[in-house]
Amino acid sequence: MQTKPKNKKPAGEASTTFQSVKGMHDVLPAESCVQEKIYRLAREILEFYNFNSIATPLVEYLGLYNRTTGEATDIVEKQMFTLKTKGGETLALRPEFTPGIGRAYIQHGMSHYPHPVKLFTIGPLFRYEQPQAGRFRQFNQIDAEIFSTENDAIYDAQGILACYRILDELKIKNLIININTIGCITCRPNYRKALVSYYKNKEKQLCTDCKRRLPVNPLRLLDCKEPICQPLKEQAPNTLDYVCATCKKHFKEVLEYLDNLALPYALNPYLVRGLDYYSKTVFEINTQPAEGEEKIDFALGGGGRYDYLIEELGGRPTSAFGWALGVERIIDVLHTRNILPSSRPKEKVFLIHIGDLAKRKSLCLIETLRHAHINVIESLGKESLAAQLRAADKADAPLALIFGQKEAYEESIIIRDMKTGAQEMVPLTKLPEMIKRKLN
Ligand code: HAM
């Protein structure tokens, strides 16, 4: 007898309550506040280095990522969220910022701007990944890009410096910049050849993805995280032995700048990064575990030089260098190490109203205080004095303002010190000045 197939609902689509989509999470006020602080600091630092903010759409044509991020990358092969419009176009939720910013650079004629053109953006991205620590399907990046007329190593160094500085100012210790050069169009074919010949006849020891990628994009094999591929990777030819003299010189200059800046770096000749557009310098920033701390397996950010992407998209030959930091990963480290950025709690006064007239006048009174930069908490829907005093206590406000019927008629108000209980009646015209005096 055939059994009737059960009408199974996808996870999260329960009949009565919904959950957020797998790998996507709500940012509740406590985390949102940390996120905002990180964004503020990042903006401040990037603006200091003369980056200007840009915002590109959440969706782009799918073809943009096929052409730039690369068809044989995890992102394009497995991780795109795509959609078809009613008009039949295939779009993709952006999995990274760089291609969209490159497209915008060309579309808006930025090649005619004075160079370098330094841009930054902050916002959400989407990758269909298996959710795990530090890996989500919707996540946020702080992204910075430098477009220049020359591929001068000083831009690589300044780019890395700005990226490092954000993490450093967040007090993340034990940072290490893993850095490598993957050569240019002249020398990369030699390295490719060496890799293909090394892996030849060893296909059986590779994962399915690597077997398929070997003839198409052998560099991707060095980026593979599958345990089965690790032993071979460790013996693979390394990039430094194959790059040309120009690329070697460029890399040496980058390292000299980093030395001058006393930035901590480690050469990693197997670092290739999981995106196709890079040339010459590539880097990732990690934090090494402090004593007794578990290893933090993920990079906080990464990037590199990409001197061919703009031309690949139909623009003029343009040198470029950029990176992105993962915001959730930064917050994870700040949480684990208990170093969330603290800020002086903003002192707030609690407004208590009693009676109709006071309630009616409360909104205008709050506006007066806003004008004087005094933060107010209120509970306008509550009527009883006791309930409002309890709320003031819970809010830990140093001062309560008691606005009763009599005071509302007389254009005055009572200021109550919540610690000592001392009260003083003051005219409304003097209120901002009196509050500031008492808070100081
Ligand atoms: P990426 O290495 O793919 O580079 O991402 C940069 C950072 O974003 C990672 O180091 C990580 O912190 C964070 N990240 C990536 N995927 C996830 C995820 N699924 N969940 C949470 N965080 C994640 C890029 O995106 C390049 N566009 C960077 C770049 C800019 N290169 C040149 N310019």
SSE diagram, text form:
Layout: H1 29-48, E1 52-53, E2 59-61, H2 62-68, H3 74-78, E3 82-84, E4 90-93, H4 98-107, E5 117-126, E6 138-148, H5 153-169, E7 175-181, H6 188-199, H7 208-216, H8 230-235, H9 245-260, E8 265-267, E9 281-287, E10 301-305, H10 309-312, E11 319-326, H11 327-336, E12 348-353, H12 356-371, E13 375-378, H13 385-394, E14 399-403, H14 405-410, E15 412-417, E16 423-427, H15 431-439
Parallel strand pairs: 1-5, 7-8, 12-13, 12-14
Antiparallel strand pairs: 2-4, 3-4, 5-6, 6-11, 7-9, 9-10, 10-11, 14-15, 15-16
Helix pairs in contact: 1-5, 5-9
- Largest sheet entry: 8 strands, mixed
Overall structural domain count: 2
CATH third-tier fold name of the largest domain? BirA Bifunctional Protein, domain 2
End-to-end Cα distance, whole Å, is 82 Å
Q: Which ranges are low-confidence, i.e. pLDDT below 50, for 5 or more consecutive residues? A: none
Oligomeric nature of the chains? single chain
Task: Give the overall silhouette.
Answer: elongated
Q: If you compute it from the alpha carbons, what radius of gyration comes out, rounded to the nearest whole angstrom? A: 28 Å
CATH architecture of the largest domain: 2-Layer Sandwich
Bound molecules: histidyl-adenosine monophosphate
Read across the widest sheet, the strand sequence of neighbours is: 1-5-6-11-10-9-7-8
User: CATH first level of the largest domain: which class?
Assistant: Alpha Beta
Strand content: 15-25%
Number of strands: 16
**Mean pLDDT over all positions:** 93
Helix count?
15
Helix % is 25-40%
CATH superfamily of the largest domain: Bira Bifunctional Protein, Domain 2
- Judged by helices, strands and strand pairing, the structural class is alpha+beta
